[in-house]
Specification:
Elements: E1 5-10, E2 13-18, H1 28-43, E3 49-54, H2 77-86, E4 91-95, E5 98-100, H3 102-109, E6 112-116, E7 120-122, H4 136-144, H5 146-155, E8 159-160, H6 161-166, E9 172-174, H7 178-191, H8 209-219, H9 228-241, H10 244-260, H11 262-277, E10 291-294, H12 298-309, E11 314-317, H13 321-341, H14 346-355, E12 356-359, E13 370-373, H15 379-392, E14 398-401, H16 408-412, E15 421-426, E16 435-440, H17 446-458, E17 462-467, H18 474-491, H19 495-505, H20 511-518, H21 520-530, H22 535-542, H23 568-580, H24 590-610, H25 617-628, H26 637-644, H27 646-660, H28 669-677, H29 681-688
Parallel strand pairs: 2-3, 3-4, 4-6, 5-7, 6-9, 10-11, 10-13, 11-12, 13-14, 14-15, 16-17
Antiparallel strand pairs: 1-2, 7-8, 15-16
Bound molecules: 3-hydroxybutanoyl-coenzyme A (3HC) and 1,4-dihydronicotinamide adenine dinucleotide (NAI).
The site of 3-hydroxybutanoyl-coenzyme A has 24 residues, from strand 5 and helix 3.
């Protein structure tokens, strides 16, 4: 086997080169290789300074996440860092791409850092439910100060080379070839008689305890329920109060605890699930240089903004100038808000606006490589639009629909070439939400599918493959949660109880609050069309309470406010519906509410994977995390089910189904089968891969 770490001595500089594709992760062999190389070069009288650099597209992007939970060979990463730092000759790390996690810890253990101008670096461990495990917080606090360390360790977001240079993390930015610049830098250190500069020996720039806690409070505000952010704050706190070795030893213990825990397991699952979901077995993507979106409404506008954000020109088409003006006005207001919040600059907003062209005739879609239809949810209208698009567009252009509930096979049947047709189901607000369900019909051809996937990725969405069914993956599942929310209201809960149960589970919003936001007329119309009844939801909508837009729905809203306020009028409506249904209202324990809503999701998820609507259980998890705010640190509905234990879920669903007579709560056959076998969704997925 070839070794991933090689050394070479050039003009008195000992080069350590790491080559471990795809991201130079710190496998056993890489850690061992670096430690051995440093020891050898330190002893070599011809070597005056040591340089660590990486082959491929990036410096070390972290510990090898695949090795977590498996036995590790020495040296540990912390020991490797100590060996680097303890080298008596100056050690320089040369950074390009993304120096992350354990990779950045290696860089911080080196005595000097040089980086390309486009390099990024950071400690994203918190996003995997961890803290930096090899002294990262301790060294970073000594190099850049405690406040910077808090930002980087708790925030988990990478910073640019320029920002790192400004705060003293990076000593020099390489103007051209990194290896050339880094070698010259190392030589200049040697020539200038610069010695090793162990980070551990540096003092930490002080920060007042009050100021420290204020920064921690700000950075942990939205992290309720998660263990890692507070553990990261503790790690920086220890850096300031304990001797270096003691602080790092404690970090290692905390790292081991967190990495064995369910939250980190869930977050690692999501990391790989997301990447797995985005892979397609076949098909080659056609280039998309220009897109068109038909329908400049809520969704069409958001979709167009996503293209513009990725630098792709897009034509937004609607029926007349007034509709275009309404759409563009909404887009302009969105940009203005982003500029106000500082998330983009005014110049960026202008650039993006310039990429959105508008038209009132569908022939303007003729130049597009991909057309996404987002007109009203009406089968006849959409069929007419696609028939016309087929006549206008090039034969190799992909035609996509953003329908959320129509039968995509029936829709594609109007086309002469249905192979070019696919569903691209975005989520509202489409410029923000990352999920895009890519819905294939029986006729969608592999290249069309590949083009839809590639385009979704290009516009920073997370694509997940779905097959055709009512509601596809996400909305089919959400319908089951909504049904439980309605039943809970009938049986004794109030909207605030139902929503709080879901928020306490970790969702940012409860289901009824969400319905108020999107408008209660939407669900009402769908139920009418399907002949289903939700007595409480129907009564609220029929009273003209359509949610935020009418100032009242499940909750009441003060003028101009989006904050839901519990409303005695809703309680009255709910109680009267319960009475008319002959239901004696009871106090429902929080745990029962949570279990009924979450287990209903899991149950439908099991049917969806058994039917092949979703390709794998982990795809269902990705849909829920990116489309519905399922807490990432719980891994998604099916990973969470594995964690809770399938036998318990089956047992509870049996109880709920028997008590309520609601057949939809009876455990799905796959769920029952896996529970009986003592298996998990994860194993089922692995066995079928
Ligand atoms: N370990 C193992 N595999 C990794 C990995 C890692 N740290 N990082 C990326 N990979 C794999 C991916 O799974 C993917 O594999 P695949 O091709 O088989 O699906 C491949 O590398 C390429 O990754 P991406 O598709 O994500 O490529 P991008 O170019 O889009 O992104 C990246 C590259 C920015 C490095 C991104 O992969 C990333 O953010 N990786 C995770 C970085 C991270 O979290 N590091 C910290 C790890 S924890 C740690 O270091 C603990 C320490 O403190 C002790
Ligand atoms: P909308 O009502 O906000 O916008 C529809 C737009 O289409 C309007 O601007 C209308 O003028 C335009 N339009 C109608 N007929 C047209 C035609 N023949 N040619 C060109 N433009 C035409 O609707 P919204 O909410 O944007 O929904 C659009 C589609 O997206 C629907 O299929 C809906 O089911 C789907 N969807 C909606 C989501 C949501 O949360 N609103 C989420 C995901 C999908």
């Amino acid at each position: 086997m070839t070794t991933p770490v090689t050394t070479e001595i050039v003009d008195g500089i000992g080069l350590i080169r790491i080559d471990n594709p795809p991201v130079n992760a710190l496998s056993n062999a890489v850690r061992g290789g670096i430690a051995d190389a440093v020891r050898v070069l330190e002893q070599d009288p011809d070597v005056q300074a040591v340089l660590i650099l990486c082959a491929g597209k990036t410096f070390i992007a972290g510990a090898d996440i695949r090795e977590f939970g498996k036995p590790r060979q020495p040296p540990s990463l912390a020991e490797t860092c100590d060996i680097i730092e303890g080298c008596t000759k100056p050690v320089v790390a040369a950074l390009h791409g993304t120096a992350l996690g354990g990779g950045f810890e290696i860089a911080l253990a080196a005595h000097y850092r040089i980086a390309t101008s486009d390099a990024r670096m950071g400690l994203p461990e918190v996003k995997l439910g961890l803290i930096p495990g090899a002294g990262g917080a301790n060294r970073l606090a000594r190099i850049a100060g405690a406040e910077q360390a808090l930002e980087i360790v708790i925030g988990g977001n990478p910073i640019s080379a320029a920002d790192a240079h400004a705060v003293g993390i990076v000593d020099e930015i390489a103007e051209n070839d990194l290896r050339v610049a880094a070698t010259a830098f190392a030589k200049s250190l040697a020539a200038g008689g610069k010695a090793a500069r162990p980070t551990r020996a540096r003092a930490i720039e002080a920060i007042a305890p009050d100021a420290f806690e204020t920064v921690v409070a700000r950075l942990t505000r939205k992290t309720a329920g998660q263990e890692a952010p507070a553990a990261c704050a503790d790690s920086v706190r220890r850096a300031m109060t304990l001797p270096f070795d003691e602080a790092v030893a404690r970090d290692r213990e905390v790292f081991a605890q967190l990495s064995a825990g369910s939250q980190s397991r869930a977050l690692r699952h999501v990391f790989f699930a997301e990447r797995e979901a985005a892979k397609l077995a076949s098909g080659s993507a056609r280039p998309v240089a220009r897109a068109a979106v038909v329908g400049a409404g809520t969704m069409g506008g958001g979709i167009a903004m996503s293209f513009a954000a990725a630098g792709l020109p897009v034509t937004l088409i609607d029926i007349d100038d007034a509709a275009i003006e309404r759409g563009m006005d909404r887009i302009r207001r969105n940009y203005a808000t982003s500029v106000e919040r500082g998330s983009i600059s005014a110049a960026e907003a202008e650039q993006r606006l310039a990429l959105i062209q508008t038209a009132t005739t569908r022939s303007a879609a003729g130049e597009a490589d991909l057309v996404i239809e987002a007109v009203f949810e009406n089968m006849d209208l959409k069929r007419e639009v696609f028939r016309e698009l087929e006549a206008i567009c090039r034969v190799d252009a992909v035609l996509a629909t953003n329908t959320s509930a129509l039968d995509v096979d029936a829709l594609s049947a109007v086309l002469d070439r249905p192979g070019r047709f696919v569903g691209m189901h975005f989520f509202s607000p489409a410029n923000v939400m990352k999920l895009c369900e890519i819905v294939r019909t029986d006729a969608t051809d592999p290249d069309t599918l590949a083009t839809a996937f590639a385009t979704a990725k290009r516009i920073a969405k997370v694509p997940v493959l779905a097959r055709n069914c009512d509601g596809f993956i996400g909305n089919r599942m959400v319908a089951k949660r909504s049904a439980q929310a309605e039943r809970l209201l009938q049986e004794g809960a109030l909207p605030q109880d139902v929503d709080e149960a879901i928020r306490a589970f970790g969702f940012p919003m409860g289901p009824l609050q969400t319905n108020d936001m999107s408008g209660l007329d939407v669900g009402y119309a769908i139920r009418k069309r399907r002949g289903t009844k939700f007595p409480i939801a129907d009564a609220i909508a029929e009273a003209g309470r359509l949610g935020q837009k009418t100032g009242a729905g499940y909750y009441r809203y003060e003028a101009g406010s989006r904050t839901p306020v519990p409303d005695p009028e809703t309680t009255r409506v709910i109680e009267s519906v319960s009475a008319s249904l002959g239901i004696e209202r009871r106090e429902i324990p929080r745990e029962e509410m949570t279990e009924r809503m979450i287990f209903a999701l899991i149950n439908e998820g099991a049917k969806i994977v058994a039917e092949g609507i979703a390709a794998r259980p982990s795809d269902v998890d990705v849909v829920w995390i990116y489309g519905y705010g399922f807490p990432r640190w719980r891994g998604g509905p099916l990973a969470y089910a594995d964690e809770v234990g399938l036998p318990y879920i089956v047992e509870r669903l049996d109880v709920f189904a028997a008590r309520s007579g609601d057949e939809t709560l009876a455990p799905a056959p796959l769920l029952r089968e896996l529970a009986q076998k003592g298996a998990t969704f994860a194993q089922w997925q692995k066995d079928r891969a």
